[in-house]
Amino acid sequence: MAKQNSKQDLGALVAQASVQRPRERIVASAQDLFHRHGIRGIGVDAIAEAAGTNKMTLYRHFGSKDDLILEYLNYKGKKSDEIWAEIEAESPNDPAGQLYGFIEKAAKFITEDERGCDLANAAVELTEQGHPGLRVIEEFKVRQRDRLAGLCQAAGASQPGLLADALVLLIEGARVSRRSVGTEGPSANFVRTSEAVIASFGIPPKDRPGRAPSVKLETPLDRTSQMGALPAYRRRQERPLSARQEAESSSRKERRPREGADDGADCVAAANF
């Protein structure tokens, strides 16, 4: 079944690529296949086939697979610039609004795409020291962090650099969590956590006048009401004790003092060990 779906996906790519020029077809196919399978999980043969061309044509436009990888990484950087432009357009002259918009965009991508950040994935796969792709990734990540720090400063953060670092770590961690335990894991609280962190640096919360209300943290946590909202892997750990388990637990507590009364010397020895 998986092979059949893979062939169907490949056929769709070939049909879509037929209306583009050879180089455009190659780049578009590489972007899709690298994203879904990783840059080391796909070869030039599959890219050429998906692009409706051959290896000779591919190597005429790109001297090596590494050149195609660089094209792919640079393209991802350009797409990021487009997203920043959208954020600015949605909240013009409002740095705080843009910062919260940035978080909402990040949350959307984390939820919708289990593959995570293409550049972070590529950084893991590119194990060769000095690979040119690593520099592209580093420059992009540094530029993103600095741009975020500038936005934090414009929004009035008390420590803009530290806030930018905290948000970057939250985003990267949420992507890994989304990949490892799914959308019901810790990444489900990414927006709420990020907004709490932003507010702690002195930036007005999102629910100030003129902004949509944000979800407020409940303290202390009402465990009974929250039980249904916990992800499956947490609900298994949070089930209440049955009547039999409670009886056995009470019985053990009642026996423990009597059993330990004769072993006082051993307890002292263990404490001093």
Index terms:
single chain; 273 residues; mainly alpha; Arc Repressor Mutant, subunit A; Tetracycline Repressor, domain 2; 14 helices; elongated; disordered C terminus
Explain what the structure shows.
This protein has 273 residues and is mainly α. 70% of the residues lie in helices and 0% in strands. It contains 14 helices and no strands. The radius of gyration is 26 Å and the shape is elongated.
Report the mean per-residue pLDDT as an integer: 79
What distance separates the N and C termini? Answer: 60 Å
CATH homology superfamily of the largest domain = Tetracycline Repressor, domain 2
Largest sheet: none
Q: In CATH terms, what is the architecture of the largest domain?
A: Orthogonal Bundle
CATH class of the largest domain: Mainly Alpha
Number of strands: 0
Topology-level CATH name of the largest domain:
Tetracycline Repressor, domain 2
Question: Strand content of the residues, in percent?
Answer: under 5%
Give a quick summary of the entry.
This protein has 273 residues and is mainly alpha-helical. It has helices at residues 2-17, 22-37, 44-50, 55-61, 65-90, 95-112, 118-125, 132-154, 160-181, 190-200, 223-226, 232-235, 243-261, 264-272.
Task: Give the helix/strand layout.
Layout: H1 2-17, H2 22-37, H3 44-50, H4 55-61, H5 65-90, H6 95-112, H7 118-125, H8 132-154, H9 160-181, H10 190-200, H11 223-226, H12 232-235, H13 243-261, H14 264-272
